[in-house]
Amino acid sequence: MTLLQTEQLTKQFGGLTAVDEVDMEIEQGEGVSLIGPNGAGKSTLINLVTRRLEPSYGDVSFKGESIVGMDPHEVVQQGMSKSFQTASVFPELSVKENATIAALAAEHGSFRVNFFRHRNSYPAVEELTNDVLRSVGLYGERETQADSLDYGNKRRLELGIALAAEPDMLLMDEPTAGMSPDETQSTVELIKRVKDELDLTFLLVEHDMEIVFDISDRIVVLNRGSVISTGTPEEVQNDPAVQEAYLGGVEE
Ligand SMILES: Nc1ncnc2c1ncn2[C@@H]1O[C@H](COP(=O)(O)OP(=O)(O)OP(=O)(O)O)[C@@H](O)[C@H]1O
């Protein structure tokens, strides 16, 4: 099943076409990375998909329905979450309280938790929260105040908060930015494990090619707003158009 589809999706800023008639499809269960040189249009494309930007023209559909016209929070309710946004963490609350709030806020999909309608479903919320904290390796830290987590664990909590909403699709913009090599490695392992465990569909923007090749089922390459290649990591790596546009100069 196609979860996300863009058709002729275009964003112009004045005379600059940042995203240029992009046709992209992401299937349920796929892990897709979006790569491309600086200024290729990756962030703009993500912002169009999450409805933080209005397209100049073209369409975005999620689960077969156009989401152009929806507010960003409505898109989240449809099952699309974006992780690695520190803004989603309440620093003065505990790890568990943060995850619980995220679980309570989720109002989509088969698992509908609405605190005000189903107060007696609190045990279900607690079970979900505990599962998520175990998945991201924070169960042992559940009583810790979010503020006092180290950097790597803060990022794990951000991922946990996104997962507690039980998203059908997770968007991640440079999840390992600012991390040490060890933290990067454990975050990559975490994303891979969570994807397998939860059959998660993701769209990742990442500059680190080692991570991209390790983590992706499929890669979409943008250059100057256009998709110049799409395929498995191997296909993309061997595509001369990509080598020229993106990996240019690394021939040995
Ligand atoms: N709000 C804006 N107003 C005007 N131009 C913009 C705006 N946002 C992005 N651009 C331009 O659109 C182009 C694409 O930018 P975008 O940030 O999407 O690229 P990117 O691939 O995410 O780059 P990076 O890898 O450096 O983050 C760039 O030329 C950028 O300067």
UniProtKB/TrEMBL annotation:
Residues 4-249 form the ABC transporter domain. GO terms for biological process: amino acid transport. It holds the Pfam family BCA_ABC_TP_C. The keyword RNA-binding does not apply. The keyword Cell division does not apply. Gene3D superfamilies: P-loop containing nucleotide triphosphate hydrolases. Keywords: Amino-acid transport, ATP-binding, Nucleotide-binding, Transport. InterPro entries: AAA+_ATPase (IPR003593), ABC_AA/LPS_Transport (IPR051120), ABC_transporter-like_ATP-bd (IPR003439), BCA_ABC_TP_C (IPR032823), P-loop_NTPase (IPR027417). GO terms for molecular function: ATP binding. Probable component of a branched-chain amino-acid transport system. Belongs to the ABC transporter superfamily. This is Probable branched-chain amino acid transport ATP-binding protein LivG.
